[in-house]
Fold this sequence. Notes:
The chain has one helix and 29 strands. It is mainly beta.
Amino acid sequence: MSGGTIYLTKPVDFYVDANIGNDTYDGLSAAFTTGIHGPFRTLQKASNTINPYNLNGFDVRVHVADGNYGAFRLPSPSGTGTVSWLGNNPSPANCLVYTDNYTAVSGSQIGNQIMQGFKLKSSGVWTVNNDPLCGLYLSGNMSTLSFGNMEFGGSPGAMVSVGRSAALYFGAPAQYIVSGSSPGNPEWIGAFVYAFQGGQIGNNTLNPPTITVTAAIGLQQGWIVSWGSSMAQQYATFANPGNVTGRKFYSSLNGVISSSGSGINYYPGSVAGLTDTGGQYA
């Protein structure tokens, strides 16, 4: 039925290209061939196309060519399966997701998704669109996102914000680059990663990723922040930690931060970490 749920019967590959694509194409080939057969132009078009799917046990892969892309919202397909967003793994900065006055990537109740090979960035004034201005904002149960190689180019709100029972994992082996600051704004705190209201952020401690801070950056509340019965664990190899100005960590309102027993000075930052109002650090 037109406009109804689409049940997948096999895996599907979509293609997006900001340079040669067109959102009137079907997105089923990397280059234009004939008729409407060619790549989408925007990530939002790919997301809108996937949204009505019941994955039905199959996967969807979105292959994204180098280019500059606007902010977009992740789809919320039904059924079991994984949606993967595949950018430029060796050079994530070549696939930039950015629109002034918007969070780069947002989503709620997204099921299982993967994102790798992108640079996320936000800037602007939060009152323009009543937006927290994060690199990623993920919320809602039935939401699990796994990162691969990524770059975070800075944002007024926390570069990675995960809450309301959503979960995010820094996959490994992978390289992560932090190249911008997070000064905070009246709508949202500034941090590298922020777990709030039951959100979870973590990674496999047996195979930790590498996080490289490539420039001098400032963080309003801390490198890693957990608030409101949330759990944040980030066990990694940190390159150039001296580039970070701000608290090492901040946990409050029964939030938990785990360094896997690595000690109070484990996280990057120029100021000692802080716990209050039932916050814990281990």
